[in-house]
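ESCALATION

Customer reports they have been waiting on this structure for their group meeting. Please prioritize. Original submission:
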Amino acid sequence: HFVAGVVVTRSAGCVINDYADRDFDPRVARTRDRPLAARRVAPAEALFLFVALGFIAVWLALQLDPLAQLYAVAGGLLAVTYPWLKRIVHVPQFYLGVAFGWSIPMAFAALTGAVPKIAWLLLTAVVLWAAVYDTMYAMVDREDDERIGVKSTAILFGEADRLIIAVMQAMTLFALWLAGKEADLGDWYRAGLAAAALLFLYQLWLIRRRLPEACFRAFNNNHYVGLVIFVGLALDFLYAHT
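Update from on-call: job pushed to the front of the queue and completed.
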């Protein structure tokens, strides 16, 4: 249910985000070829798809326990409201992280009937990590965003962007380390975190000159951060439980 829910809800979020940005995206070099921006898809078609995905997400949520259903309602509101937040505040990246990570407390509520400390540690890590990579993403569009009035952490942080990203990377790893300690994970998991730390350092090197192409490469490199942490967690589980 959760795998399907993540796919469906994330897809619905992407659709409503592009719908909300349909008048902004044509004015940004990186996004002008998106289907709605390029007028290959009509706004009404996008809304129809969003509603269809939303019904599937609601049906999946109804299969969960009542406590998890309450969290699902909050998660749906987060996903739907995020696209408009960038018009209001300079920190939509943190809100995006909460929307991305909200399935964590949902899953704990569904499987255990409670949301323990480790769930909030993991959510904190996801929020910080999303702020890291989405700030890099926003650095690609900083000039266009300033021109059209879209707010982002890349604009808010200004010349301190690289330092703040480094601090958030360290905080992400610390939150994950605390979560691992809470779950009594071992050396394989910590090795995954160490590999993630090296990748974070590589990302900082990529964005040292704030070149848009390099910032986009740093953003994409976060796929590997997730991968090495997952591999470390899987190996730790495999060898600690055999």
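Sent to customer with the following note: The chain is about 75% helix and 0% strand.
Escalation resolved.
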